[in-house]
Amino acid sequence: MRQRNLSLVLHAVAAHGPLSRAEVAGRIGLTRAAVSTLVDELTRGGLLVELGRTRPGTVGRPGSALALSEQGPAGLGAEIGVDHLAVCAVDLRGRVRARAERAATNRDSAPGRVLRRLAELVRRVEADAKREGLRPAGLAVAVPGLVARDAATVVRAPNLGWQDVDLSRWLPGEAAGPAVWTGLSVDNEANFGALAELWLGGAESPRDFVHVSAEIGIGGAVVLNGELLRGIRGFAGELGHVPVRAEGHPCACGGRGCLEQYAGEEAVLRAAGMTAGEGIPRLRARAADGDAAVLRALRGAGSALGAALAGVVNLLDPQAVVLGGALAELSPWLLPATERELARRLAARPYSEIVVSTLGRDGPLLGAAHSVVQGVLNDPMRAMRGNSA
Amino acid sequence: MRQRNLSLVLHAVAAHGPLSRAEVAGRIGLTRAAVSTLVDELTRGGLLVELGRTRPGTVGRPGSALALSEQGPAGLGAEIGVDHLAVCAVDLRGRVRARAERAATNRDSAPGRVLRRLAELVRRVEADAKREGLRPAGLAVAVPGLVARDAATVVRAPNLGWQDVDLSRWLPGEAAGPAVWTGLSVDNEANFGALAELWLGGAESPRDFVHVSAEIGIGGAVVLNGELLRGIRGFAGELGHVPVRAEGHPCACGGRGCLEQYAGEEAVLRAAGMTAGEGIPRLRARAADGDAAVLRALRGAGSALGAALAGVVNLLDPQAVVLGGALAELSPWLLPATERELARRLAARPYSEIVVSTLGRDGPLLGAAHSVVQGVLNDPMRAMRGNSA
Fold first, then answer.
1. Helix, strand or coil for residue B13?
2. Where is the signal peptide (chains A, B) (predicted)?
């Protein structure tokens, strides 16, 4: 019960802070006396701070405003992309306080090599975060592939060439400092991207949506009533492998005619007559210049996306579809074709709006770091025990 | 709290009964004294009965076994099919106690005519149920179409030709006796079929599955963690309109290449060179006789179903896919092609098993009636108030 109430206080301040003790009490339905006791514990534990007119030596003045600590636990997020690695540290208020990244050629690479490089970046960001007065409380890693539910095993990441890679074996505690390794979690990048949308999108963002993003592959995630749908094995949301052409191009997943083969980065570059190395920025520049082949390729990708989304809307009837990652960057050229296709296939009924994420390519990285912060807000006693140890 | 505890007692007896008071107390974690008070109230209210060694005049002997009443509230379920109407009454133990049906040509029919005929059947079943000593506690109607969430409005039922039909306007209380009309609920037939699977499938049935059924159309429903996914408008589960051929046959929904156009009853009959009137029993007989055209048509339907399910499995990663309705009856000929298609498209990863429902065509009707029974188990105070009134 105490655990739950401590968490309620933190979530109230996270969502609506700064708040006075009385305002917290009003929001969570506890007495002001009970809230004061909880706030004192959270302040001593380094999770809450008092803002404003506090005098030295006074703790817990009822009138002063409470905020989450900027010097408390931090979430470390990491992203293993096909062509880059990134790590960041986010404080309890959700601000990025340290960040490092490097270009990398991770396609068909040995997990050990990639994960040693990732561990270097993690150590660098961890050191920077500590210099800022933060205490890393855990590491969450976003990967482009299927991740086993409640485990740190990448079951299959075709674009990395990985199969059954247990990240906890490759990212040992000794290598990067024990503080980080109190918690290692691994999830699909699209899942973290969707959670970032949920947590960082503000009060008006949908709580019931399908998130679609693209880097090399097409990622997807389903959020229902504010909860990520994981699926029985952890594999839910694989929108990139929904078939859109019955006997279409073979796909790295083993299937045929998957959406990824028509709206993934490589497919679009190929359709535009460009090489894989030219990448999205170049594609975007040419689209902005009105290059006919590029515009045609993007229209084709948008239509394929619309056909897949027609299936998704029929199946889930979500509040919204959110486009993230490269799909957000390309949305001015993709979206008209996608919307036309949806309108054509769902003419007879109302359906979900399509919205474009404002998080861009950072969604998965931020979502990973924020998942650690959410863990602290959900289980503050554990974070405070870590502090006193 | 009392409301919740009364419901816990009923659900424990429903799932595991007959149970003694002590066994109920053990299962729901309340004291035996508290359970005795609740049981007395439920017995007085006509929802529970004592079995076995009770003597006249003694109520609530602690040692006797408790069961749900066979003389208490009943759920009335109704089904509006394209070619039939059916109504049944189910007691609290889940047994069908009265039933009536008639063939009907409901395609492109005026709602008023269909619903007047349905009301006649409801009155007949209600009278039969009362003769059995039951008290109808509400009516739930299954329809082949989109139903607005938390309302009794059929937004669109293309095979009936209905649009925005509010059933509560057409099924007024006076027409069929006030007892029934304490509660009218309307839902998509596939939703009720999936709920029947969940409630009647036994302890080992999956709690996380996609349900696919066919009559004239293809219906679908998604159950996640024991809860029906309704979607933001109530339209979730429309598997029949997931596109399986990008530029395939036009569909009554306004789309193109929808699964229903390849695996729905009419599509299969047409592909087998049969007329729509010949129906599933004849199709099955010819399949059993080894008719090559029929077997080919069923293989084609099975493949189309497999392609749609590959998308569903990628998106939801459910524990199981359950085939119901005509798809269950045809499963010996459909399933090999469906499984081949799934295996081909999901070769690289584990995925959900396909199971065949044992409820056959009765799923939606039984699910509708049971939804009323579930309402009584969830809100027994309301049902008991109805009794004393």
1. helix
2. none
Spatial distance between the Cα atoms of B116 and B222, rounded to a whole number of angstroms: 32
Residue A197 lies in a domain: no
Residue in B with minimal Cα distance to A251: B345
Q: What 3-state class would DSSP assign to B34?
A: helix
Q: Which of A68, A93, A126 is the last residue of a domain?
A: A68
List, for residues B56-86, the tens digit of each pLDDT value: 555 554 467 999 999 999 999 999 998 899 9
CA gap B327, B159 in Å, rounded:
18
Q: Is A236 within 8 Å of B316 when comparing Cβ atoms? A: yes
Number of domains in chain A: 3
**Residue B202, pLDDT score:** 76
Nearest-Cα distance to chain B for A389, in Å, is 37
Backbone angles phi, psi at A258, to 5 degrees: -65, 150
Q: Nearest residue of B to residue A207 by CA position?
A: B232
Cβ(B146)–Cβ(A349) below 8 Å: yes
> What is the mean predicted confidence (pLDDT) over B175-181?
48
Query: Mapped to the 3 state alphabet, what secondary structure does A224-280 carry?
Result: ECCEECCCCCCCCCCHHHCECCCCCCECCCCCECECHHHHCHHHHHHHCCCCHHHHH
Cα A267 from chain centre = 24
Q: Which residues of chain B are within 8 Å of residue A352 when distances are taken between CB atoms?
A: 232
- Neighbour-count burial for A19-56, b at 16+ CB within 10 Å, e otherwise: bbbebbbebbebeeeebbebbebbbebbbbbbeeeeee
Query: Among A81-95, B52-66, B245-259, B306-320, where is mean pLDDT lowest?
Result: B52-66
A262 and A311 both lie in a single domain: yes
A263 touching chain B per CB within 8 A: no
CB contact under 8 A, A317 and B348: no
Task: Tell me if B63 sits within 8 A of B20, measured CB to CB.
Answer: yes
Q: Which domain holds residue A93?
A: 73-192+364-388
Shared domain for A351 and A217, answered yes or no, is yes
Is residue B131 in some structural domain?
yes
Picking from A51, A68, A85, the residue at the C-terminal end of a domain is A68
Measured between alpha carbons, how far apart are the two ends of chain B, in Å?
Answer: 23
A116 touches chain B (CB under 8 A): no
